[in-house]
User: Fold Putative tRNA (cytidine(34)-2'-O)-methyltransferase from Secundilactobacillus oryzae JCM 18671.
Amino acid sequence: MTNHIVLFEPLMPANTGNIARTCAGTDTVLDLIEPLGFSIDDKHMKRAGLDYWDKVKIKIHQNLPAFVDSIPENGKLFLVSKFANQSYVDPDYANEANDYYFLFGKETTGLPEPFMRMHPEKAIRIPQDDSNIRALNLSNSAAIVIYEALRQQNFNHLEQTHLYDNDKLK
Assistant:
């Protein structure tokens, strides 16, 4: 089982850098769908990702159809959108035979509407009060969704760090 955070035509290097850092810390693949609004070598992107770039598994896709074609038969695609009816906590992300792909839209326009209309059953949303904000921050949204998947997967092979000796806490 492999988890993927997929960014459709990301524009902001800071968001992508923060998401890359989350990917490094969760052993999640970062798929980027071109065109990108920045260079991967951009100093702002490196600053956001700090020194974790060598720990991130990055795949670049020429366009949305090329990305879709790259999904293996065992891949489960989820479209993360505020326009979805299903909550992000509803699907089962724990089948070890599957790879999970969480596709997030461009910061300014989201995912292409025709693509969303073709796959409404794959759409998930993070509940939010739409009267107060247009959308949650992309990097925050990616973290929320990937940690729900990891929770359902019992934090699949992530090491636990213990800051304190548990015997001293009793």
The chain has one domain: 3-169. Residues 74 and 98 are 5 Å apart (CA to CA). The helical segments are 13-26, 43-49, 64-70, 113-118, 138-152, 166-169. Residues 3-169 form a domain with the Alpha/beta knot fold (CATH 3.40.1280.10).
